[in-house]
Amino acid sequence: MLLLPALSASAAEPTAPQAPAASPAVNLAPSARSAVLMDADSGTVIFDKNSHDKLPPASITKIMTMLLIMEALDDGRLKLTDKVSTSEYAASMGGSQIFLEPGEEMSVDEMIKGIALASGNDASVAMAEKLAGSEAQFVNMMNEKAKQLGMNDTHFANCNGLPVADHYTSAHDIAVMSRELLKHTEITKYTGMYQDYLRKSSEKPFWLVNTNKLVRFYTGADGLKTGFTNEAKFCLSATARRDGLRVIAVVMGEPNTKTRNAEVASMLDYSFAQYTNYSIFKQGDSIGTVPVEKGQVAQLELTATHPYSVLMRKGAATGDIRHELQLDKNIKAPIKIGDRIGRIVVYQGNQQLTEFEVQSPITVEKASWWTLMKRTCAGLFS
Asked: From the candidates 34, 42, 51, 59, which is the catalytic residue?
């Protein structure tokens, strides 16, 4: 265990230590079939209403599709400039679409815009086929990722949310995958955009308007995804950031868009009025080092890839907050990028407030015999 020094805290009024946030007495989403309000950094639930009910998610499904795309961009399997060809199957999708034609090519960047703004079912399938070879194989990847994230209320049957048997998730699981997607901070460049064009240089440019109107009318809103089918009704996973606090509000089964947007805005208003966050690490901060046994590199330098913070009620005392980096035992090569190697645990006094999983920032292969020999010799004579 590596104990990191606690960050200094500004003076605050002496109040009782803040327990994990609990649902307020008022129902913030009375018309929703289910809902959840979550702090994006810590995962703390602020408000909960039937959040584990398994329901059809409609196009909110595409949050997982976008997550797998962003992961592929991060690890180099995709580039934003890569061309994506549209199959006849992808072009045949109904519902929301960007009207791709069989054989038409667009860049990954354009496809993401088509998914994030216009909720393109055709663009989702085209990207699924680009990454996995087929939509069916991509759906397997979606379900595997859901399992990794602990989304126990979820099973995906397609990549776009069109009505199909055995396709369901919950408000809680949507918040979990939304939180994971937001770790890829560049995604909000797409989901927070209100309008843009595709096929700009063609004779028929296609105007995109974000289906999530909150990104235009709610201060700080920059995502994430709407959804509607007759079965699912009106759904939304929304996120907004103010004064360093980012929250995620999910509603499912709303009767109409006006009610959906109003209740989500109410949830966001409540969180910004009642809560703040206490920063543990800012994006880019050094977290520590991790030794890797028999690895091509002897140790990993850990850097915060996204903000780490603790949700606190406004006015709560913060002077005795501390954190520890607790490493897993026997960290040996090979290690894949994203593999768990430890956790950051945050305490207030003796009470644990939250914890964050720490993942390997790179892939570390096993070192050769010669590398290990040189390392041993260097240690003897240093």
From this structure: 59
Q: Are 345 and 324 in contact (CB under 8 A)?
A: yes
Q: How many whole angstroms separate alpha carbon 297 and alpha carbon 364?
A: 7
**pTM given for the model:** 0.86
pLDDT digits (tens, 9 = 90+) for 228-272: 999 999 999 999 999 989 999 999 999 999 999 999 999 999 999
For the record, the structure tokens of 15 come out as 């109040």
What is the Cα–Cα distance from 305 to 227, expressed in whole angstroms? 29
Two tokens at 218? 């709610």
Residue 262 CB partners (closer than 8 Å, separation 6+): none
Angle at 172 between CA 169 and CA 173, to 5 degrees: 45
Residue appearing with tokens 């499904």? 61
Residue 130 bears catalytic tag = no
Q: What is the pLDDT of residues 39-51, one digit of tens each?
A: 999 899 999 999 9
62 is catalytic: yes
- Which listed residue (62, 130, 225, 233) is catalytic? 62
Active-site residue (options: 34, 96, 119, 170)? 119
332 is annotated as an active-site residue: no
